[in-house]
């Protein structure tokens, strides 16, 4: 991949919650990095991943509730780490889990996840990551053989290990994510996570008691049958990366493989579903 990026400098009014919702949508459209400022933020995408239609499905741009302006520029690769360090705030989930950068102070909660996301998705800022952490908090995952599909920074695999899951496979299709997750797994002293670059094709013949997949609706619809084939009876499947209105479609697919919906979590119209296999 070359080092040329396309940047979109967005102003969003009102900024709260507009910028947060827009960042979430852009993350799913393929943007890789976001640097906030007073009036909005700048979003970056590699030129090779960009296309003319990149904003076509970003619904906030059509919303009457927010005023959004942007200007587009081509930029050479910047020092992402320095940019990111200036802008990443620590996050807490349920007063139990902190997700922070190495330079943040440790708030001394029960679980402390240290992540340096660079270009990959998964700081806990996103609603879907947050909800998957919530599901994992509630599940007893001790000694559960686990798969984290679409692992991004590795954040969910890392938290699963902290909660006692093992062994864990974490798979991401993106080479940046794969490289970055190696660093994060190491940084959090995880010993039971095996990382792979790839997709559902790697799952043939595998067996898990817990499968976590925070990807997007279409990839999930395509891959649910493969996940189902790898999931043991009484095993749990956690799915996120889609909206409330996508639930019927996802649910219809999952139901084909003998799984029951146990719990739905919803944040700002994003959802995370927990299924259990018969
Ligand atoms: C929404 S992010 C989730 C990251 C992290 N698990 C989290 O919860 O914050 C989705 C991830 O799935 C990866 N991905 C996309 N398509 C995939 C596929 N077919 N198989 C595996 N990973 C995929 C992307 O590269 C991205 O890192």
UniProtKB/TrEMBL annotation:
InterPro entries: Ribosomal_L11_MeTrfase_PrmA, Ribosomal_PrmA_MeTrfase, SAM-dependent_MTases_sf. S-adenosyl-L-methionine binds at residues 129, 150, 172, 214. Keywords: Cytoplasm, Methyltransferase, Ribonucleoprotein, Ribosomal protein, S-adenosyl-L-methionine, Transferase. It catalyses: L-lysyl-[protein] + 3 S-adenosyl-L-methionine = N(6),N(6),N(6)-trimethyl-L-lysyl-[protein] + 3 S-adenosyl-L-homocysteine + 3 H(+). Its EC number is 2.1.1.-. Its main location: cytoplasm. GO terms for molecular function: protein methyltransferase activity. GO terms for cellular component: cytoplasm; ribosome. It is found in: Cytoplasm. PANTHER family: ELECTRON TRANSFER FLAVOPROTEIN BETA SUBUNIT LYSINE METHYLTRANSFERASE (PTHR43648). Methylates ribosomal protein L11. Belongs to the methyltransferase superfamily. PrmA family. This is Ribosomal protein L11 methyltransferase. It comes from Polaribacter pacificus. The gene is prmA.
């Amino acid at each position: 991949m070359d080092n040329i990026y396309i940047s979109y400098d967005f102003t969003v009014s009102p900024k709260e919650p507009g910028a947060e919702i827009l960042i979430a949508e852009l993350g799913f459209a393929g943007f890789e990095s976001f640097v906030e400022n007073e009036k909005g933020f700048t979003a970056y995408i590699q030129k090779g991943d960009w296309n003319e239609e990149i904003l076509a499905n970003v619904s906030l741009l059509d919303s009457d509730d927010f005023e959004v302006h942007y200007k587009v520029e081509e930029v050479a690769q910047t020092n992402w780490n320095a940019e990111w360090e200036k802008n990443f705030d620590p996050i807490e989930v349920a007063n139990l889990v902190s997700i922070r950068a190495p330079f943040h102070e440790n708030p001394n909660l029960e679980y402390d996840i240290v992540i340096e996301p660079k270009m990959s998705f998964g700081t806990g800022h996103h609603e879907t990551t947050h909800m998957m952490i919530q599901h994992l908090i509630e599940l007893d995952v001790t000694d559960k053989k686990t798969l984290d599909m679409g692992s991004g920074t590795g954040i969910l695999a890392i938290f699963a290990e902290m909660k006692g899951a093992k062994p864990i496979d974490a798979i991401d299709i993106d080479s940046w994510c794969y490289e970055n997750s190696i660093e994060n797994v190491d940084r959090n002293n995880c010993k039971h996570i095996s990382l792979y670059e790839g997709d559902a094709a790697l799952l043939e013949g595998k067996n898990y008691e817990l499968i976590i997949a925070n990807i997007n609706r279409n990839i999930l619809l395509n891959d649910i049958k493969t996940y189902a084939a790898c999931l043991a009876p009484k095993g749990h499947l956690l799915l996120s990366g889609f909206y409330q209105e996508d639930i019927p479609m996802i649910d219809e697919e999952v139901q084909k493989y003998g799984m029951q919906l146990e719990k739905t979590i919803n944040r700002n119209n994003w959802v995370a579903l927990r299924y259990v296999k018969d």
